[in-house]
Write a structure and sequence with these properties.
β1 and β2 form a beta hairpin. α3 crosses α14 and α4 crosses α5. This protein has a two-stranded antiparallel sheet. With 304 residues, the protein is an all-alpha fold. It has 14 helices and two strands, in the order ααααααααββαααααα.
């Protein structure tokens, strides 16, 4: 469990996080109005609903509620896919066997991304099948990064993946996720050869640095014991964006017994001097694997 990295009695914190998880899930369930195209306020409500589900998933993961975490993340993914936001497709690709319509909706969204980008390259004008909201989302660098991860994990189309990879390279140091990973570093997670052109920096180092940054932010938050004990205004112990990156890296060569990416991360973690940092990073990696393992039977609402 992630809290175990901090070597203190976690029973009180666990109870607080459990109550917070229940609250977030209840709030998300209460915000499930049907989508009516053209209602801007409704789209905002759906985005709030998606955010609540993702926060609930992160919260559940902090205390080892793997099945609830998987359920909440899938609900968040479905809501984002309903909004035609690429982040939903990336979360769908996080699960080894996306069920409950997740894979189908994610592939439809990637088809829309591919169609739009082909039209842009050929200077064709076409009426987007989505909404102004989804069209704007597809223009965001971070959403292009999500689309790249989704195309890779769902084995969608090599041409789209290559097109998006080229764009990520051009975006350079534009930040991705809470840990503000340079977007160009995402290629290192899925393409071992890319490290040869990046001064030896590889996917394992990208993840280790990101996990270290997350650990440091939590350590700073613990200075204020009042807020920490109540889990107020602190960084989440489990980061969905970082989990997507871990999944992308560890699944790239999972069939190659001689090259297991997860082992490479764990071996390099042993070189870190802070024991608690090592424990936290190891627990984070285990959490990602457990959520993916438990995802197959996680029940979700078929219709949001």
């Amino acid at each position: 469990m992630l809290l175990s990295a901090f070597g203190e009695d976690t029973r009180g914190l666990t109870a607080v996080i459990r109550r917070r998880t229940t609250y977030l899930e209840a709030r998300a369930r209460a915000l499930r109005p049907p989508i009516r195209h053209g209602e801007v306020g409704m789209w905002r409500t759906r985005m709030l609903c998606a955010s609540l589900w993702l926060e609930a998933g992160e919260s559940a993961a902090c205390i080892g509620l793997w099945r609830r975490a998987a359920t909440a993340l899938k609900q968040g993914a479905l809501t984002l896919l309903e909004l035609q936001v690429p982040a939903g497709a990336a979360i769908a690709g996080f699960f080894p066997d996306p069920r409950h319509g997740l894979r189908e909706r994610a592939l439809r969204l990637l088809s829309e991304v591919q169609w739009k980008r082909s039209a842009q390259e050929s200077n064709q004008e076409r009426q987007p099948s989505g909404t102004e909201f989804s069209a704007a989302a597809l223009e965001q660098p971070q959403q292009l990064a999500y689309a790249y991860l989704a195309a890779r994990e769902l084995s969608f189309d090599a041409d789209l993946e290559g097109n998006l990879r080229h764009n990520l390279r051009s975006l350079g140091a534009v930040p991705f996720g809470r840990q503000r990973i340079p977007i160009r570093d995402l290629e290192l997670l899925v393409n071992p050869a890319a490290s040869q052109n990046n001064s030896g920096r590889d996917g394992a180092q990208v993840l280790i640095d990101a996990l270290a940054e997350l650990f440091r932010s939590i350590e700073l938050a613990r200075i204020n014991s009042y807020l920490w004990d109540r889990m107020l205004s602190i960084p989440s112990l489990f980061d969905v964006d970082l989990a997507l990156m871990v999944a992308a890296y560890t699944s790239r060569d999972e069939t190659d017994e001689a090259n297991q990416p997860l082992s490479a991360i764990q071996e390099r973690l042993q070189q870190r001097t802070d024991r608690r940092e090592r424990v936290f990073a190891d627990e984070f990696l285990k959490s990602v694997m457990r959520i993916r393992k438990e995802s197959g039977d996680a029940p979700i609402a078929r219709r949001l």
